[in-house]
């Protein structure tokens, strides 16, 4: 099998196993019969492919998709799971760190995102010191589409 087909093969195997287990109604996996599990499978396939083919650029994508899938599954099924926007920043930091282990760049961004995410998640417990962070997060939650627009404009100008 050619290397470019291996990623697609891993995804197909994972999705096939998902639907087989779902069809057989295996009792251990009943909490995993959801679309979040498909994200977990796709992220895992990216990670397996990255390490198998030694194409470490896909570690970032795999970690990001796997982390988001696990987080969304946790929010949906477990009452103790933390549902905060800072978790996505932590996942982003972990993706940078895991990739940087193999390609030797991105350590600083990984630690930066982990720190910002951790600070954001725990800022509510230290509201007296970090009240400005809650105000900033409410502002970002309301106007985040502007960030996408600006990023698109920057990318258009960069390509000229």
Describe this structure as you would to a colleague.
The chain has 160 residues and is mainly alpha-helical. It is 79% helix and 0% strand. The chain is built from six helices and no strands. It has helices spanning 3-24, 35-53, 58-77, 86-103, 107-122, 127-158. α2 (35-53) packs antiparallel against α3 (58-77). The radius of gyration is 19 Å and the shape is globular. The mean pLDDT is 85.
**Number of beta strands:** 0
Large-scale geometry: globular
Low-confidence stretches: none
Radius of gyration: 19 Å
Name the structural class: mainly alpha
Q: Report mean pLDDT, rounded to a whole number.
A: 85
Helix content: over 70%
- CA-CA gap between termini: 39 Å
Biggest β-sheet strands, sense, barrel: none
SSE pattern, N- to C-terminal: HHHHHH
Proportion of residues in β-strands: under 5%
Helical segment count? 6
């Amino acid at each position: 099998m050619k290397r470019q087909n291996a990623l697609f093969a891993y995804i197909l195997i994972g999705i096939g196993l998902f639907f087989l287990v779902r069809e057989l109604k295996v009792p251990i996996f009943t909490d995993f019969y959801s679309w979040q599990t498909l994200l977990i499978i796709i992220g895992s396939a990216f990670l397996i492919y990255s390490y198998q083919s030694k194409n470490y650029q896909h570690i970032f994508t795999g970690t990001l998709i796997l982390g988001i899938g696990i987080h969304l599954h946790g929010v949906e099924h477990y009452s103790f799971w933390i549902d905060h926007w800072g978790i996505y920043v932590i996942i982003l930091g972990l993706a940078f760190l895991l990739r940087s282990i193999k390609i030797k760049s991105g350590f600083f961004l990984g630690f930066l995102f982990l720190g910002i995410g951790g600070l954001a998640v725990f800022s509510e417990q230290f509201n007296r010191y970090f009240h400005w962070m809650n105000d900033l997060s409410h502002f970002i939650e309301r106007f985040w589409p502007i960030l996408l627009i600006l990023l698109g404009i920057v990318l258009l100008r960069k390509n000229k």
